[in-house]
Amino acid sequence: xxxxxxxxxxxxxxxxxxxxxxxxxxxxxxxxxxxxxxxxxxxxxxxxxxxxxxxxxxxxxxxxxxxxxxxxxxxxxxxxxxxxxxxxxxxxxxxxxxxxxxxxxxxxxxxxxxxxxxxxxxxxxxxxxxxxxxxxxxxxxxxxxxxxxxxxxxxxxxxxxxxxxxxxxxxxxxxxxxxxxxxxxxxxxxxxxxxxxxxxxxxxxxxxxxxxxxxxxxxxxxxxxxxxxxxxxxxxxxxxxxxxxxxxxxxxxxxxxxxxxxxxxxxxxxxxxxxxxxxxxxxxxxxxxxxxxxxxxxxxxxxxxxxxxxxxxxxxxxxxxxxxxxxxxxxxxxxxxxxxxxxx
Length: 344
Hints:
By secondary structure, the protein is α+β, with helices and mostly antiparallel strands. Helix content is 49%, strand content 13%. Strands 1-2-3-5-4 form a 5-stranded antiparallel β-sheet, covered by helices on one side. Strands 6-9 form a two-stranded antiparallel sheet. A two-stranded antiparallel ribbon has the order 7-8.
């Protein structure tokens, strides 16, 4: 039996291919570029031109309790397109998935026309609406996301991660005790308000790199961390994406589309909540980027950091309620004070 903790992803992939009797018809096996997680993906191509994807975990899995499989079952029930699960190999830490190709929404919009961009993002917003509505209809403790929430502790832990891995490790900030205390006080205000809001089913990482364009429609991936949270969470992740620039008109149009589909209205209260979620979400993202850069040496997140800081600066200048938080952070992150404000 292969020791998952010792074997490389390619070694485990080859073991799986041999085990299921497909070695003789396999033409190539190679690892795909990773994301900011401890999972990896391997593509297996057959001599007939077909292919499939192996999702590899760092350790053996238990198919009966694996969050990825539980959430996949939930999304399938809600008619949310996801990669089909073909097989599992628990001892190898492998889940076998359909191959959706290489066209993420992030990659697609880089060469898309304005009409194509609007069409794909409208579809992405429609999937958020479906998750929220269907999630409300079929909520059950049988599905893991309905037992997990963005409560104060979870939201605060993500902000503390930002302090540790972006401010201290990445930015080399020397944060004095008074600033740490003030940050905790400001963070507590943010998380208390977010945690008190109406909760809906959230993908939790709903952005352009986790949406794949396949067979003419979007498919959702990396959904294993889904949980209950604020209704603004996924829409902020999509429209203030750390990997893509969207102009104000584009964002406003899609926020309006979301509300039209939800039979609600865009008012000042919602926009304030949208900005509040943006602050927490982007501070959390900066923590992730800082961690990836300082621990793995990955430079691909440097551009994302610049864009994320711009989003934060825009909110800080638009919302005076964040003046104290902005003042503390700009002491250690000068870029937060070098952006132009964007108004609705």
